[in-house]
């Protein structure tokens, strides 16, 4: 008797009473999870209030020298909420972040990059002194916009470089086993020299980087922040503070 037949016989022996028990257990488990996530949301809300209002003093002074380049991953559906994204960037600007890599899988943020650049980068000089003062006092931010298509294109080009270099030039030579160093050299040949983010904040339902180029997060600290609509200023401060306190070992 194979496993499938054994499972089928076991399933056939389940009575309506057993089904009721399983259904009850399912509802109990569902209730426990709902209570857990509700309690977690309440805790984060209280924590955000305490941090934002300066009641918790540990997050007042951040070592932003450790965060030279910040990556932000946003779910493509939520990336369409431009107002939410702008508010997030304003918070980062208030904190003092200068360079941000914005990523979403479908490239939605790329389509709105003029809005972000105009809002956070310098514009043309004006003869109005008041406007100039306002412009000079405005915190500037530099952006890089990335989508999954960028990663696919770069990998394809890097593979082409390696193929031409090691498989077309000399057929008699021993073919190497491609490692990270080969990919790095190929990317440098292509002129792909963008820095790796020091910290990556992920705003999405799923706890993953949603296809962010893997070769750029080899030593990156990744923090899942939940959905964009539930973003909290205090939790951003906490994530940056915790990152600056971490000792990173890059190997020998």
From TrEMBL:
Which InterPro entries does this chain map to?
Nus1/NgBR, UPP_synth-like_sf
Q: Name one GO cellular component term.
A: dehydrodolichyl diphosphate synthase complex
Q: Where do transmembrane segments lie in this chain?
A: 21-39
Q: Supply the SUPFAM superfamilies for this chain.
A: Undecaprenyl diphosphate synthase
- Give, as one word, the top-level EC class: transferase
Q: Where in the cell is it found?
A: Endoplasmic reticulum membrane
Under Enzyme Commission nomenclature, its number is 2.5.1.87
Reaction(s) catalysed (UniProt annotation): n isopentenyl diphosphate + (2E,6E)-farnesyl diphosphate = a di-trans,poly-cis-polyprenyl diphosphate + n diphosphate
MF terms (GO), sorted A to Z = ditrans,polycis-polyprenyl diphosphate synthase [(2E,6E)-farnesyl diphosphate specific] activity
Q: Which family does it belong to?
A: Belongs to the UPP synthase family.
Q: Indicate what this protein is called per its UniProt record.
A: ditrans,polycis-polyprenyl diphosphate synthase [(2E,6E)-farnesyldiphosphate specific]
